[in-house]
Specification:
Largest sheet: none
Oligomer: single chain
Shape: extended
Number of strands: 0
Radius of gyration: 17 Å
Strand content: under 5%
Helix content: over 70%
């Protein structure tokens, strides 16, 4: 049997770090394509071995959606 993961216990063990990071993003109001996203992409690519091309494709998709949204308004 695989034991269940106690997410609440894990969260509480690093609560200060998580809360500070979330608050910093909220205060910056850079939810999309900001510095925090760029930092995450670099760290995640390093951790997972994912190529930067994956994130580049996502950035292009967001940019395309923004262009469509501007045309609609």
């Amino acid at each position: 049997m695989v034991p269940f993961l106690d997410l609440k216990e894990q969260y509480h063990s690093i609560k200060g770090e998580i809360d500070a990071a979330v608050l910093a993003v909220l205060e910056s109001t850079q939810f999309v394509l900001g510095q925090y996203v760029a930092d995450f992409e670099k760290e995640f690519a390093k951790y997972s071995g994912a190529a930067d091309r994956v994130f580049a494709a996502l950035r292009e998709a967001v940019a395309a959606e923004r262009k469509v949204a501007v045309r609609r308004s």
